[in-house]
Design a protein that fits this description.
two-stranded parallel sheet; elongated; alpha/beta; 3 domains
Amino acid sequence: MAETSPHRPGFLRSLSFRLLLLTVFFVMLAEFLIWAPSVARYRKVYLEENIVRGHLSMIALETMPEKPVAKALEQALLFHTSAYSIVLDRPERRSLMVSKDMPPKVDLVVDLRQESFFGFIEDAFVALSQTRNRVIRVIGISPKDPKVFFGNPMTAQTLSSWVTDPAARKHYVEAFARSDFDAMLNYYKANYPTTSGATAPAPPSLPKVKAPVLMFHGLDDRALHRNGLAGTWDWLEKDLTLVTVPGAGHFVQQDAAELVTSTMKWWLTMRAR
């Protein structure tokens, strides 16, 4: 009887190949279980370091006298913290903010108070898959001082944080609670110019205001520059009374409350005659 050799399966069907696949799988799984938490930790530390840098930059402003921050200093702080704007809140004082004139649209909001371990892992993988730089808004407590809060979310309370009088703030909170935040943002998005100078688009044709106008403007306003007052009268059919207030900021009715109140009373009394 002729002798026959036993059948041997190919390498891809052999026990050795199956053991190799299992070995590779478990090695890759172990690498992932080690690497994923490391990436999540790096992501968390990276975002917290941005909070710390913002806190350090604002400490310098808090030690300054109560006067507007020089634009050059403001821009230098933003440059060295790699930020477009910084908002700081303390329980014993209102918000302190530095910001560029026209911050870009925010692509992602990260609230460090609500992020979880798996959330950081997901955020890290999403960041690795990006092909462009994104603008991120980071909200969180300063790791060095738990009383310092950065990146206020838009709520009725935070929008009213600038009001120093508790009784008046209550009315502002109630009014903002009845408002539509999306509508507020859409108004500014639709009307805020995207360019300036010679490249700025021509203003739209709108009907003129038919009533007399009393306008107050704080000369230290960092949201609306004084140069923007030029040509205001072109939008009016009647007379304009313009009151510029040195030392007052964007909320002139608070920074110069007595002047605003007395001037309004005088102006309304004159109109009643």
